[in-house]
Amino acid sequence: MTDERSKPSAFFLWFPRRMFVYAAVILALMIISAIGSDVSLASLFQLGNTWHFITANFWPLRTELTPYLLEQSLVTLSVAFLGTAGALLVALPLSFAAAENTSHTAGGFYGVRSALSVTRSVPEIVFGLVFVVSLGLGPFAALLAIFLHNVAVLGKLVAELIESADKGPQEAMLSVGAGRRLGQVFAIIPQIWPDVLSQYFYRFEVAIRTSLVLGMIGGGGLGQSLMNYYNSLAYDAMATAIVLIMVLVIAVDLFGGYVRKRVI
Fold first, then answer.
1. Cα angle: 18, vertex 19, 25; to 5 degrees
2. What local confidence, expressed as pLDDT, does residue 193 receive?
3. What does CATH list as the number for 65-263?
4. Of 57, 127, 133, 171, which is the most buried if we count CB atoms within 10 A?
């Protein structure tokens, strides 16, 4: 008869011992990260000073700045939209070359994949700094930074969608005499288009936030206005810009969610 005491407890049946090893490793990494990030528990008790600073300096809002800030918000929206829409137009043909099932040559496949990976590894703010120095201050530098990074990101995402597409429609197109390239385009695009739009609107929402950050380094729009107010210690004007930024981001999130639901 098996000794009942030799049986593993129900706890260890549900949680294998290796899970405790993983948990210990994660905990150790968190401790190391906290040390590297200079986390101070004493500083947490001083967060009340932040609230005091906000209540003392952020009110009342400078509502007379609303027309100017609305104009700057249009600049921010324009940069984000044109940067991501242009990136999608360029990324679509590149994604067919970067997808394993539609690329026509191994050299083209690995070349495009490598180019997308290298470009994707460079953050938008790095592109922004380079373009601000080379092209001068203004929203065009931010637009190019968003465009380049999103070509690489959307190219990778769409390539993965192409690789997961059903092969049946492609074979049907070939069976009726369509060329390989034409058959791939007309068989795959209708399948993946809802997911492509979903990915695009997500990247557009991200680009709104990115354009704000790029504005702080000279890329124009609401981000630059926010930084100008901060540098001049006009905290009430800065608070007005922050409120408008929050409204803008929430509105774009809601619109993107609505479109994704309608499409998908």
1. 90
2. 81
3. 1.10.3720.10
4. 127
54 CB-near residues (< 8 Å, 6+ apart): 239
What lies within 8 Å, CB to CB, of 73 at 6+ separation is 221, 222, 244, 245, 248
Of 59, 52, 89, 80, the closest CA to residue 146 belongs to 80
Measured CA to CA, the distance from residue 143 to residue 190 in angstroms comes to 29
Output the CA angle 227-233-124, nearest 5 degrees.
15
**Which residue, chain included where needed, has tokens 């990101």?**
153
- Rounded Cα distance between 36 and 39, Å, is 8
Q: How far is Cα of residue 172 from the mean position of the Cα atoms in its chain?
A: 36
Q: What is the pTM of this model?
A: 0.78
If DSSP codes are grouped into helix, strand and coil, which group holds residue 35?
A: helix
More reliable by pLDDT, 99 or 157: 157
The domain spans of the chain are: 65-263
pLDDT of residue 239 exceeding 70: yes
Q: Write the CA distances from 34 to 20, 23, 42, 47, 66, integer angstroms.
A: 21, 16, 14, 18, 41
89 pLDDT band, cuts 50/70/90, is very high
Peptide bond into 60 cis (omega under 30): yes
Q: What is the mean pLDDT of residues 5-30?
A: 70
Assigned token pair, 210: 């990115």
pLDDT range class, residue 173, cuts 50, 70, 90: low
**CA–CA separation, 211 and 15 (whole Å):** 45
